[in-house]
Structures are given as C-alpha cells and as structure tokens.
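Structure tokens please, single chain.
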Amino acid sequence: MPVTIQNRSWQMQVFNLVHDAYCRGRACSCSEITTVVVNENPRTGERAPRRVPKCVPAALTLLAREVRTGLPNTVLQVPDIQAALARGTLRVVAQTPESTPAPAPAAKGPAEVRQAPAPETPRPASATPAASRGARAHEGARGRSAATERKDV
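Here you go.
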C-alpha cells in the first residue's frame, strides 16, 4: 500500500471509489446490501416483498488538510481522484517508483501553467482586519474633527 495523498483544501472531501476503476486487479472492496422491493404479479395483482442484492462502492473521506497513508495504487485510477489531482485540491505526497500512475491524456488547446499557491504566513496582531479597522476609525475621527474645525475658521 505505497500511496500517500494529502487533502490540500480546508474542506472535507469524499470520493466514491468506483468499482470499475478501484476494484480492478484486486479484491473487491464494495459492500453488498440487500434492499426490499415490492414485486407485483401482473396477472393476479398480488404483491409480495422481494429481496434484491446491490453492490455499493466504498468511499474515501479525507478531512481538511488530512494526509492519508497506506492506500493502494489503484486509488489513483478513480476518476474523481484524478479530477481532484488536476484541480490541485489533492496531491500525491509519496508513491513507490514502480507504481507510477498512467499519464493523463493530453488536453486539446493551449497548455495551462499552474503555479503552486504561496504558503500563508501568520500576520502580526496589528495587521489583522479588526485592528486595522480600529486604527482607520480612530484616524477618521481625527480627520473629521480637523475638517470641521477648518470649516468653522
């Protein structure tokens, strides 16, 4: 289980692990549930409950800024995860060299250049919006009183 991925957004993300992409070449991780439906006989009109088994795909839930380790390589084949990787809201932190994902098909049109977002630096207390607003309000009060004094003179 050599893949480590990180959620880069400040929101929780949930990815449905589609059976065709995720369970290919390994044991199926889907769970089977049984639903009860009402079956009606068209000749007699009798109704009877019938149990129908359904296969439900698993899901991968990543909390905000979470790093998940120990995922199988097939998780990179899931379309939702590939889309999140392309958007930049998800990134692969570590992966073994022999299991690199297949390259995505080239998009038609001009190539987009993506820049990594700058890391956030903590601002000093005086630079917070509330402190700035208080300072501006105080300066504004002085400015107004000076303006009114000028009008009186």
